[in-house]
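call fold(seq) -> tokens
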Amino acid sequence: QVQLVESGGDLVQPGGSLRLSCAASGSIFSIYDMGWYRQAPGKQRELVAAITSGGSTNYADSVKGRFTISRDNAKNTVYLQMNSLKPEDTAVYYCNALARDYSGRYYPVFGSWGQGTQVTVSS
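ret:
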């Protein structure tokens, strides 16, 4: 079982930037597609960014053009660079490995989530 540890969350003003990190244990990190999810109070957890094992990326419409996901397989780490932050980006952010179901939609591989990292965007 891979363990995931998220970090980098903080309180930031609207328009600011943050860089989140997710460190994964285990030697098979590089074979997985990876994703960043977020969960705001009272809302379901949603996938906001994904990166394939080969480095291709895709994003939820709500963050496209503002967030950038990247990975460093040598460090078993995936990153989320968040720019032009908005109050609606406030949430706990989590990472997980990803797999695709029969319809091609991503789902999280590991049922045990990390503790997440809190991002609060407020003036």
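The first strand starts at residue 4 and ends at 7.
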